Amino acid sequence: MNATTSIRVEDVSKRYEIGSVTRLNLSDEIVYHLRRLIGMNPDTLSKVDKVVRDREFWALKDVSFEIKQGEAVALIGANGAGKSTMLKILSRITTPTAGRILVAGRV
């Protein structure tokens, strides 16, 4: 990244797995809700959950761009185009599945 580049996005992709979590029986369901009530994270503690991932959704796929210092940029696109996902990645709320982000300064 050179001295005038503020943000560089290189081949960034973000994949979400779509599916559901099912519990095997009634006692597992009760344990899940009791853990929630006492403040424990039930999804990370439960060993009986069965995760079914039906499909995947790519919010971003191989996106690259560069923003130079002092440039004003607008991120526009149709609903579901990945605008919010890109902003979440740039602000480090979420991480990309692939690619890398280089930021000089704060976003």
Walkthrough of the structure:
This protein is α+β, with helices and mostly antiparallel strands and 107 residues long. It has one domain: 3-Layer(aba) Sandwich (Rossmann fold). Helices cover 22% and strands 40% of the residues. The protein contains 3 helices and 3 strands; from the N terminus they run E-H-H-E-H-E.
Fold topology:
Elements: E1 5-22, H1 26-37, H2 42-45, E2 50-68, H3 83-90, E3 98-103
Order of helices and strands: EHHEHE
* Amino-to-carboxy terminus distance: 16 Å
CATH homologous superfamily annotation: P-loop containing nucleotide triphosphate hydrolases
Distinct helical segment count: 3
The level-1 CATH class: Alpha Beta
Number of domains: 1
Helix share, percent: 10-25%
User: Which range does the strand content fall in?
Assistant: 35-45%
Q: Give the tally of β-strands.
A: 3
What are the defining features of this structure?
alpha+beta; single chain; Rossmann fold; 3 helices; 107 residues; 3-stranded antiparallel β-sheet
